[in-house]
Amino acid sequence: MKIRKAVIPAAGLGTRVLPASKAMPKEMLSIVDKPAIQYIVEEAAKSGIEDILIITSRGKTTVEDHFDRSPELEKKLLDSGKLDVYNEIVNITKLANITYVRQHETKGLGHAILCAKAFVGNEPFAVLYGDDVILGENPVCGQLCEAYEKYGRGVVGIKEVTVEQIQKYSSMKLTPLGENRYEITDMIEKPKPEEIFSLFSILGRCVLPPRIFEILENTPYGVGGELQLTDAMKTLAREEGMIGVDFEGRRYDMGSKLGILEAIVEVGLSHPETGAAFRTYLKGIAQNL
């Protein structure tokens, strides 16, 4: 079944990148000349997604403004003969059919996904975490959608991480299926060293069947009064199995200061307007490190 819908949870407070996120949503922090969330929406669109729901919260209306038309700005660009920039600005509004819903209380990623139940209906859907920008030639969302269409089961994007990182993320119990795909039969969130299944962790992307909503509604709230999506996916993995895709692409954690810096440097080096001059600048800086 073709995946047509995607959900982008973007309601978090961004406490790890304060004070930058005090008045500006972390999803709107710029990577060279585009906000982080635009890269995520572009990835979904390149993957064949037609309808996107962005889960927001109080103070995030700039996200909605970014994907809306701006008649005054558009007119000024046209009057100034800046047709290329005009087209770029207008095309942002045509990436997909984007709608919004507010998560009134930040009660965890699982609670945010429950807010999308009416939007999703009875069909599978992709989830692209708002903190994670993943860049590459082959969009990661599309890689996961292909796996769902082949196996008909929930799919998660996974990568190997360090022992230190796995204890902050989630650990997958898996067996290889060939190429870059695995069967997942169990998982654990933030494992203790003796609880680690493997060093493969979910990083930023998944495709889920509509049954996940029923599971979420019957999953107890955990630490800090939050409903964890990983707990619901664990039930799904144990009952019917899931597929893990060791995806192609470079992930940037836009919820961390270091992740933002890494994204800016690497995108800046490949950007047609900044690449050459920025490379020269960095070589000069590197000599003094």
Can you walk me through this structure?
Belongs to the UDPGP type 2 family. Residues 5-264 form the Nucleotidyl transferase domain. It catalyses: alpha-D-glucose 1-phosphate + UTP + H(+) = UDP-alpha-D-glucose + diphosphate. It comes from Candidatus Merdivicinus excrementipullorum. Keywords: Nucleotidyltransferase, Transferase. By secondary structure, this protein is α/β, with parallel strands linked by helices. 37% of the residues lie in helices and 25% in strands. The chain has helices at residues 36-46, 61-66, 71-79, 83-92, 109-114, 117-120, 140-151, 163-166, 211-217, 229-240, 257-270, 275-286; strands at residues 5-9, 30-31, 34-35, 51-56, 97-102, 125-128, 132-135, 155-160, 170-178, 181-189, 200-208, 242-246, 250-253. Strands 5-4-1-6-11-8-12-10-9 form a nine-stranded mixed beta sheet. α11 packs across α12. The model has no long low-confidence stretch (mean pLDDT 93).
Strand content: 15-25%
What's the pLDDT, averaged over the residues?
Answer: 93
Number of DSSP helical runs: 12
Give the strand order of the largest sheet, numbering strands 1, 2, ... along the chain.
5-4-1-6-11-8-12-10-9
Estimate the global geometry from the Cα principal axes.
globular
How much is the radius of gyration in Å? 20 Å
What's the end-to-end separation, in Å? 52 Å
Biggest pleated-sheet summary: 9 strands, mixed
Q: What string gives the helices and strands in order?
A: EEEHEHHHEHHEEHEHEEEHHEEHH
